[in-house]
Every structure is written in structure tokens, then in C-alpha cells.
Write a structure and sequence with these properties.
With 230 residues, the chain is of the alpha+beta class. It is 23% helix and 36% strand. It starts with a strand and ends with a strand.
Length: 230
């Protein structure tokens, strides 16, 4: 299926909110299969330096860091100093699927970075809701006036999250229609107690794809953890 890019709006608030994500020193990314025996059902993705963890189905393909960095830069963002990972369930995985719509397989993108002083002052629950695409009514109206191509916004989940050691944020699930095709976006945006670091993960694909893969996607999203993975 041909996909349509959302480059103009990809990472819209992450870049505007933080003024550019600054250096976050990271350790080596570890991936460990999850299974007592036989082939693992999920791959466990962890970076202890960032204290960020999640798991993905083993059938999903990891996007190389080189390709992901190139896609981020092409979308107007920066990969410098940011821990970012991506997985694509497509049999023809591509980093470009990160800012594409009408995907028939799920695509996952996760990112961690420091907030600038401006970003810290601007960060709010509504800012977290609007981190990638317009979710709040005010931002939807503003972006529609600016030519945002998504229509028929439908919110499926608006969940407040409170974690350990002051970690807090939101999980948003919503739908947009682009050129007659409806896509579903599931995202979680967290910050630490003093709101200096932003932790984000998003999985998206077409409405049909999301429905077919909802159990796996919910497992991925529910596994996204900041702090101890246990």
C-alpha cells in the first residue's frame, strides 16, 4: 500500500516544545527475548541509562539507528543526543513509515531526551497530548487552519498516568482520516518528577490494522516503563 507522509507535522511538538532535544547520555541498548522455552513471543527492549523499557513482538523488525536518524532529520528533527528506537511489523520495514499514514502493519517509535528550560516551562498535560499530532481541541483548530490534512478526529482513550518516583503523563489513543483512509494512533508520553526528561512511545497504523493487532499493540504500550522494569 502506498503511504502518505506527514513530514510537516511529524514530531511537531517534540521539536517546538523543547527547542531541540539536548544531550542525554545513554548506555548500550539491550534486547532480550522473553520466553521460558522455545521461541520468544516478545523482544524486551531496555536502556538502563535512560531507565526506559518496553517489549515488542519478535516478528516486528528493528529499524537500524542509521536509517532512523536519517528519517528523523528528513522530518525536520534531530537525532543528536537522543535515544530513539523504532520497530516495524511490515515485511518491508522502513524508517520512513514513522511519519507515514495508511500503513497496513504497526510501526513503533520511542524516544527519550532532556527538555530545555523553555520546554520545562511549557510542559503540561495538554502539551504532552499534542506531542506529535493535534489532540486537544485548541491545537486541532489551530492546525486545521494551518492546513493539517487529518479530518474526522475521534478520541478513543484519554488516560492520565502516575508512575513510581513522580513519573507522570498521558496515554492517548485516537483516529484521524487522511485521503479517505482512517488511521489509529496510540501514544504514551511521560516525564519525570521535575519535568526535565521526556519519554515517548507511539504505535500507529490504519484503523483496520490497529483492530487486527490491538492485543499486541496494547501489550507494547502497557509495557512501556520508566524506572524499574519490575
Amino acid at each position: 500500500m502506498e503511504v502518505t507522509p506527514l513530514t510537516k507535522w511529524a514530531f511537531r511538538s517534540t521539536r517546538g516544545l523543547t527547542g531541540g532535544l539536548t544531550l542525554l547520555v545513554m548506555g548500550a541498548l539491550a534486547t532480550v527475548g522473553l520466553s521460558a522455552c522455545g521461541s520468544p513471543a516478545y523482544t524486551y527492549v531496555a536502556d538502563s541509562s535512560a531507565s526506559t523499557y518496553y517489549k515488542v513482538p519478535t516478528q516486528w523488525h528493528q529499524i537500524s539507528q542509521k536509517d532512523l536518524n536519517a528519517a528523523l532529520q528528513a522530518a525536520g528533527g534531530s537525532s543528536a543526543g537522543v535515544w530513539s528506537t523504532a520497530y516495524d511489523a511490515s515485511p518491508a520495514p522502513s524508517a520512513n513509515h514513522n511519519d507515514s499514514v495508511s500503513l497496513n502493519k504497526p510501526f513503533l517509535f520511542a524516544e527519550v531526551g532532556h527538555l530545555s528550560s523553555t520546554g520545562i516551562n511549557q510542559l503540561s498535560y495538554d502539551a504532552m497530548r499534542d506531542i506529535w499530532l493535534p489532540v486537544t481541541s485548541t491545537t486541532r483548530q489551530t492546525d486545521a487552519s494551518a492546513g493539517f490534512p487529518g479530518t474526522n478526529f475521534t478520541q478513543l482513550r484519554d488516560q492520565m498516568i502516575s508512575g513510581k518516583q513522580g513519573v507522570h503523563g498521558v496515554r492517548e489513543t485516537f483516529k484521524y482520516t487522511f485521503s479517505g483512509v482512517t488511521d489509529t494512533f496510540d501514544e504514551e508520553v511521560l516525564t519525570n518528577a521535575d519535568q526535565t526528561i521526556l519519554y515517548t512511545v507511539q504505535v500507529h497504523c490504519s484503523e483496520t490494522c490497529y483492530s487486527q493487532n490491538q492485543n499486541n499493540i496494547n501489550t507494547v504500550m502497557s509495557s512501556f516503563t520508566v524506572g524499574s522494569p519490575t
